[in-house]
């Protein structure tokens, strides 16, 4: 089954084609992402109406480009998957409207995909994917969650952020230190030149039981340190390193606890912050100390929003016989625990 995936939940337009007849990474025939970073940079953040309009301009050309790269005609498609939530309602409606229209015209099924399930399943696109049960760390600008995955489509929330997501904390911390938008990747690059240990910030909520996160207080600590410093380039790098170390160590401690609580040794990490080099290294070290421990990441270009994860997640559900009616419907707020389980034969076929 050749499935077109469409992602328009926020400020990236993503399109991909996944073929379930091929195994693992070979099934991803083509994918492309258009980022709106330059459009929103002058505003210091995403402007929803501008995001929606840019999706309208870019989506159809990107679909044509992706199909050409895959060597396919649009009539070769067997199904269409699209992000239906969570996300910005206007942006979601652009992708849903195009996806439903294509499915209707081609007389193929369409399926709505949960954005965070797409992220969660992205590491499974690679060769030698892990099989449930495992624990997933979903860590991005909008989400920081620990999820027990008992089966594809059967998820239990173990912990989540009580305020800022980790990626959001990266972005806001970068902004208060004067770094350009988007600040998170800029801060991570700056931290590479920082002196380890010169600034040591708290590891929030690690001194008590539980798997929830909180990063707002950490931002305040950085603000006070920055305000009282000489604000030189080296000091900026040192503070960035101290902040990054605090976030990474907090995530690692909570992941260790989550694996213990779930009684398994496999961790998968997805979302934009999953591209952070220091986080990847720390989680590899943590899981290597566990007997049979393993951590899996998507390739770097599939950490941020993309159509590949939507095509893959949609393909699993379409092969399981799940699809939508002709109504164009999105769900800007959507609890992943409400998703139906995907039966094992469909997963094996992918």
From TrEMBL:
Give cofactor(s), names only. Fe(2+)
Q: How is the cofactor bound?
A: Binds 1 Fe(2+) ion per subunit.
Gene Ontology molecular function terms on file: iron ion binding; tRNA N(6)-L-threonylcarbamoyladenine synthase activity
Catalytic reactions on record: L-threonylcarbamoyladenylate + adenosine(37) in tRNA = N(6)-L-threonylcarbamoyladenosine(37) in tRNA + AMP + H(+)
* Single biological process term from Gene Ontology: tRNA threonylcarbamoyladenosine modification
Explain the purpose of this protein.
Required for the formation of a threonylcarbamoyl group on adenosine at position 37 (t(6)A37) in tRNAs that read codons beginning with adenine. Is involved in the transfer of the threonylcarbamoyl moiety of threonylcarbamoyl-AMP (TC-AMP) to the N6 group of A37, together with TsaE and TsaB. TsaD likely plays a direct catalytic role in this reaction.
What's this protein's name?
Answer: tRNA N6-adenosine threonylcarbamoyltransferase
Gene responsible for this protein? tsaD
